[in-house]
Amino acid sequence: MSPDFVTPGSVRSAAEVNEEIRALWQRTGGTLSAEERAEYEMLVVEWAAALRSGVVKAA
């Protein structure tokens, strides 16, 4: 997992989480290890929660 991974319950915008998801896929070349897949799954859950809660990136 990346050292800057934020624990569940943090408040990040969907855009911020999406950027981390994109970086993960780019970093791995599109193939995820078991650990990376777990990170991806947590990021997707966080992204969906941010969308539901309407968290927007601060200006």
Mind sketching the topology for me?
Layout: H1 14-28, H2 34-53
Helix pairs in contact: 1-2
What does this protein look like?
- It is built from two helices and no strands.
- The chain is mainly α and 59 residues long.
- It has a domain at 14-52.
- Helix 1 (14-28) runs antiparallel to helix 2.
- The termini are far apart.
- The model has no long low-confidence stretch (mean pLDDT 84).
Summary tags:
2 helices, 59 residues, elongated, mainly alpha
Write a concise synopsis of the structure shown.
With 59 residues, the protein is an all-alpha fold.
Which bin fits the share of residues in helices?
55-70%
Strand content: under 5%
Straight-line N-to-C gap: 28 Å
Tell me, rounded to a whole number, the average pLDDT: 84
Low-confidence sequence ranges: none
How many strands, which pairing sense, and closed or not: the largest β-sheet?
none
Rg from alpha-carbon coordinates:
11 Å
Count of distinct strands: 0
Q: What is the number of helical segments per DSSP (H or I, 4+ residues)?
A: 2
